[in-house]
Amino acid sequence: MFKQKLTFKNSRNLNLSAVFEGEDKDAPVIVMCHGFHSSKDNPISTGALAQKLVKRGLCVFRFDFTGHGQSEGTIDEITPLGALDDLECAAKIVGKRDFALYGSSFGGYVSLLYARQNPVLALALKAPVSDWNTARVSTNRGIKFRQETKNIGIYKLAENIKTPTLIIHGDQDDVVPFSQSQKLYDSLRCNKKLEIIEGANHDIRSKDLERANVLIAEFFKEKLLTHP
User: Fold this and answer.
1) Per-residue pLDDT for 75 more than 70?
2) Is 17 within 8 Å of 69 (Cβ atoms)?
3) Which residues form a coiled coil (predicted)?
4) Which of 2, 26, 166, 179 is the most exposed, fewest CB within 10 Å of its CB?
5) Residue 78 lies in domain
């Protein structure tokens, strides 16, 4: 078992905090993108899933977006495209090896942007934002996010994603409407699966979160470790 704490810079010269961990450094890597107001170390969400991935023989590279967790900057500085830059810089730290990608909510949108223009081994999304126009975001932040992404059509871009993709979403989501993931699923042209968590809202917890994490961990295990 290894656990390596890292710091790397984004294009704005801010130091971002990361952890690289697993049982075997040569095992397939999953890069994890947390949600807004969360972090790489959130024990309920990111941390719990990371443990399941490591136990299945996978490596995890989890990092904090700008203004989150132990990374520099303020939360008001982060935007979807700024976060994409954070992810692109994280990918350079992972190196030349291919990796899989996990994104939750805000991190799901960022992961979609990355996957539509970069090859990834597999893609898992939990309650991902696909359209900021219908996501419930505070007024000022929502205006900024919508303005920045007004010319980005995720549903059209999703047609270019070729990697196996898993989407998990609660059908009572009060922040990111479940209909977004239904439309995203219909737009994808790859090997895809949509798992519905009945009765769950955006803040998936308890047995619903356990189910979601197991589904994600088993998805990555199947796609990255199972050979014909």
Assistant:
1) yes
2) yes
3) none
4) 26
5) 2-225
**pTM reported for the whole predicted model:** 0.97
Q: Is 185 within 8 Å of 143 (Cβ atoms)?
A: no
Which CATH number goes with the domain that contains 73?
3.40.50.1820
Write out pLDDT tens, residues 169-197: 999 999 999 999 999 999 999 999 999 99
Taking Cα atoms as reference points, which of 173, 176, 193 lies closest to residue 185?
193
Task: List Cβ neighbours of 114 (8 Å cut-off, separation of 6 or more).
Answer: 84, 87, 88, 91, 101, 120
* Cα diameter, the chain: 50
Tokens of residue 110, six digits: 């960022």
* pLDDT at residue 139 tops 90: no
Indicate if the pLDDT at residue 111 is higher than 60: yes
129 neighbors 84 (Cβ within 8 angstroms): no
Asked if residues 58 and 30 have their Cβ atoms less than 8 Å apart, the reply is yes
Q: How far apart are CA 98 and CA 26, in angstroms?
A: 11
CB of 34 closer than 8 Å to CB of 107:
yes
